[in-house]
């Protein structure tokens, strides 16, 4: 991943994973119905393309809660899809 190459001193997940797979968390819920609905919408929406304008680095605190630590803006690339995210 280009982000890892740019900041090798900060490996994702503390470097515990050999291979990183970019992913998108669509929903987090304990409600099975909410998860089922999200799965249906997700499958019906694929494939999709978006332009990523920035990366949000999140980290877990000592209490198990997640917080945004940094926002890393990215440069646009020529020929990027029109849908934007970030």
Structure description:
- The two termini are 18 Å apart.
- The protein is built from 2 helices and 4 strands, in the order ααββββ.
- The chain is α+β, with helices and mostly antiparallel strands.
- The chain is extended, with a radius of gyration of 16 Å.
- A hairpin with a 5-residue loop joins β2 and β3.
- The strands form 2 sheets. The protein has a two-stranded parallel sheet. Strands 2-3 form a two-stranded antiparallel ribbon.
- The mean pLDDT is 81.
- It has one domain (2-85).
Strands ordered across the widest β-sheet: 1-4
**What gap, in angstroms, lies between the N and C termini?**
18 Å
H/E topology pattern: HHEEEE
Poorly predicted sequence stretches spanning 5 or more consecutive residues:
none
Biggest sheet record: 2 strands, parallel
Number of helices: 2
Proportion of beta-strand residues: 15-25%
What's the rounded overall pLDDT mean? 81
Number of strands: 4
Radius of gyration from the CA trace? Answer: 16 Å
Overall SS class? alpha+beta
Domain count: 1
SSE order and pairing:
Blueprint: H1 2-6, H2 32-45, E1 51-52, E2 54-60, E3 66-73, E4 84-85
Structure characteristics:
86 residues; alpha+beta; two-stranded antiparallel ribbon; 22% helix; 22% strand; extended
State the gist of this model.
The protein is 22% helix and 22% strand. With 86 residues, the chain is of the alpha+beta class.
């Amino acid at each position: 991943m280009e982000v890892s190459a740019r900041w090798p001193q900060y490996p994702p997940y503390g470097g515990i994973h050999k291979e990183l797979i970019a992913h998108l968390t669509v929903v987090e819920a304990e409600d099975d119905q909410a998860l089922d609905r999200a799965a249906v919408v997700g499958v019906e929406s694929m494939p999709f393309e978006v332009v990523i304008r920035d990366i949000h680095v999140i980290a877990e605190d000592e209490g198990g809660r997640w917080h945004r630590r940094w926002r890393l803006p990215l440069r646009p690339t020529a020929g990027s899809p029109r849908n934007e995210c970030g």
